[in-house]
Amino acid sequence: MTFRNQEKIHNKNHTKKWADKRIGITGASGSLGISLSKEFKSKGAYVIGLTHQQKAKELNLNEGPNQWVQWSCGKENELSNLLDTLDVLILNHGVNPGGNLNAKALENAIEINALSQWRLIEIFTEISLKQINTDKTKELWINTSEAEIQPAFSPSYEISKRLIGQMISFKYSSLTKDQHSKLKIKKIILGPFQSKLNPIGIMNPDSVARKIINKSIYSSKLIIISPNPLTYILMPIAEISREIYFYFFKDKKN
After folding, report:
1. Cys-Cys crosslink for 18: which of 30, 35, 39, 43, Cβ 3.0 to 4.6 Å?
2. pLDDT, tens digit, for every residue of 100-154?
3. CB atoms within 10 A of CB 93
4. Per-position b or e across 120-158, b if 16+ CB within 10 A of its CB
5. Is the CB of residue 8 less than 8 Å from the CB of residue 32?
6. Order of strands, sheet of 138-143, starting from the edge strand that comes earlier in the sequence
7. What SS3 class is residue 244?
8. DSSP conformation class of 150
9. Residue 23 in contact with residue 90, Cβ under 8 Å?
10. What is the pLDDT of residue 62?
């Protein structure tokens, strides 16, 4: 079999996986959100973009999601009915205060990058674990970035990303084997890509989106895309270390 034929088979199977799936993406009006939406739509998925922007409906639906839903941090419970209909929820919203060391900037970063995401994680986890049909597995992807383990030249951003990164590791370790069969949790660890948060990013968001979706098929927990080779070493070590640490405190009856 030639390489070209193998690639065609791979693309066909990959497209089949996402056909008719309902994908929810927060931060969908940002560079990566738009790129993920286009890529998922090209594979037959129905994409719902969750955004804080009041003018989201005016954005180009050809470039972005099939449907826009406006929401606000602190009102995550209002999304419960929508989240119940999703096959995959991708948490991609965030803020980057840069070098601002103001306490308000830190508070805002923690609220949006960590606490808001945690509330959505809890809601989606509860919905997923209540599924009667155990043959159906929902997926939860969270974009924490490599700021979880490396400097990002933004102290507040780094603190908030490290917080949500550890909270996700905690959640992952707290689930039983049966619960993991109902909900797959994956972390997206990205290096610098071009966006409003990082206009000097060196990676193209369209390319990053394709790689995220391709790697999601084979990655059980971490989806790492970075030009920094250290990220591919340090992130798994950090994740395994947390998993071992949490194991000692886990109820062994589960």
Report:
1. 43
2. 999 999 999 999 999 999 999 999 999 999 987 667 899 999 999 999 999 888 9
3. 23
4. bbebbbebbeeeeeeeeebbbbbbbbbbbbbebebbbbb
5. no
6. 67-70, 46-51, 22-26, 88-91, 138-143, 183-190, 222-225
7. helix
8. S
9. yes
10. 64
Q: pLDDT by residue (tens digit) across 13-60?
A: 566 789 999 999 999 999 999 999 999 999 999 999 999 876 555 565
Q: Is 157 a catalytic residue?
A: yes
pTM attached to this predicted model: 0.90
Rounded-to-integer distance, Cα 141 and Cα 90, Å: 5
Structure tokens of 49? Answer: 């973009």
User: Distance between CA 241 and CA 168 in Å, rounded?
Assistant: 14
Q: What is the pLDDT of residue 6?
A: 41
Task: Pick the catalytic residue from 46, 157, 172, 218.
Answer: 157
Q: What are the distances in angstroms from CA 153 to CA 58, 143, 156, 232?
A: 34, 18, 9, 20
Give residue 56's pLDDT.
Answer: 56
Residue with tokens 């826009």: 68
Give the span between the Cα atoms of 54 and 69, in whole angstroms. Answer: 10
SS (H, E, C) 28-84: CCCHHHHHHHHHHHHCCCEEEEEECCCCHHHCCCCCCCCEEEECCCCCHHHHHHHHC
Distances in whole angstroms, Cα of residue 104 to Cα of each of 100, 107, 156: 9, 5, 10
To which H or E segment does residue 208 belong?
helix 205-216
pLDDT in tens, 165-212: 999 999 999 999 899 999 999 999 999 887 776 766 789 999 999 999
Q: Which domains does the chain have, with CATH numbers?
A: 17-247 (3.40.50.720)
C-alpha distances in angstroms, 69 versus 26, 121, 195? Answer: 9, 18, 21
